[in-house]
Amino acid sequence: MATTTRAALAAASLTLLAACGHGHSDDNNDQPDPAQVEKGKQIFRFDTFGDETFWTDTLKMNTVVASAVDPTTALSVGLKVDSAALPAAVVQGIQNGTISLTSPDTTVALLKLDAVVGLKGTVESVNGKDTLTHLGITCALCHSTVDNSFAPGIGKRLDGWPNHDLNPGAIIALSPVLTAQQKAVYNSWGKGMYDPRFNLDGKVGPAVIPPAYGLAGIHKVTVTGDGDDIAYWNRYVAVTQMGGHGSFSEPRTGVNVINGTDDQVSAKLPALQAYQLSLAAPTPPAGSFDAAAAARGKALFNGNAGCATCHSGDALTDANDRLHSPTDVVSEPEPNGEPSYASRSATKQYRTAPLKGLWQHAPYFHNGTAATLDDVVRTYNTRKSLGLSQSDQADLVQYLKSL
């Protein structure tokens, strides 16, 4: 693949395995500065790090959106609308049908209001018409959703919640500069899946978009434990995946990417970390699990099932102390003959996933091979020969739902 094409695809690859991932600092359990947290929230939601250079200049996505992506289409590929950004007149127009949800002009209007979660558009008047002249993406594209309080896909922001309705590959594939072969790969990923290494190693193996909440006090925050601090993974995503202006280098994988001549990433990392580490895992909805069964499941978790061997401590992970060989995990081999995801990483290993908020972010395992928590428990019981009865497995599922 030509170097220039690889650079374009680096930008095209949306965020994410975790687009704006997270990391550890020695003081990440200290009380954060509220002003720093608020600054980080604005960066998380609205800062593109200058990635319009790629999404607009290289991929021409502003033209695609302005000409062919109406709100109905946008919602169908998992994009979300922040209802808090909508003026009363717009709310009324959507409700009474005077504002069209099948016109790309409405999408442009929503972008002008900063109402499309994770997209940042520059709208200017050209020949008397509002025109989308630049388009970029932010961390919130993959790591925020909405509560659907206004309508499906339209509501109040839920930062840190992975957007598993989002189809990153299908969005990227809309770019007119990609080849048919490249578009086929992106379209193969599916909803809630993203490959943060494809644009760099050319291998295909998308991973589930992970949550960006509940990470305070956890050192190894990515599925393969690459990096020990927030700067490492945030820099990786901002530069190599979003296409932001800055640099990222990793000798262990041979990745060395430099975008632009102005660093729009480094100075923003401390505030971005402060906000990310302030995002708590959501508590399970009332009535969503059987409390008595969950109590029995907790005893199994800490006892005969052996879960606490790795899912230990307050965060229910041993990621601060060790990583695990691919031979130790039950999520490999990968589906469809894909290469080991760990083999493509800097560590070649996996970290134990923290479990707080587990109820919220199905599917499970890094590759999404477990659709439900029942599937998770069943897989462990089979692959690890745990010998759990059907009732034991059911109790364990209820405990996982309670976290």
Describe this structure in words.
The chain is of the alpha+beta class. The chain has 2 domains: 3-277, no CATH class; 291-402, Cytochrome Bc1 Complex, Chain D, domain 2 (Orthogonal Bundle), CATH 1.10.760.10. 35% of the residues lie in helices and 10% in strands. The protein contains 16 helices and 10 strands. The strands form 5 sheets. It has a two-stranded parallel sheet. Helix 14 (291-302) packs across helix 16 (390-402). The chain is globular. The N and C termini lie far apart (45 Å).
Query: Structural class, from secondary structure content?
Result: alpha+beta
* Helical percentage: 25-40%
Percent of sequence in beta strands: 5-15%
Shape: globular
Q: How do the helices and strands line up, and which of them pair or pack?
A:
Blueprint: H1 3-12, H2 34-46, H3 52-58, H4 61-68, H5 71-76, E1 81-82, H6 88-96, H7 104-112, E2 119-126, E3 129-137, H8 140-143, E4 144-146, E5 154-155, E6 157-159, H9 168-172, H10 180-187, E7 193-194, H11 198-201, E8 207-208, H12 230-241, E9 246-250, E10 255-259, H13 269-277, H14 291-302, H15 373-383, H16 390-402
Parallel strand pairs: 1-5
Antiparallel strand pairs: 2-3, 4-6, 7-8, 9-10
Helix pairs in contact: 2-13, 4-7, 14-16, 15-16
What would you say about this model in short?
With 403 residues, the protein is of the alpha+beta class.
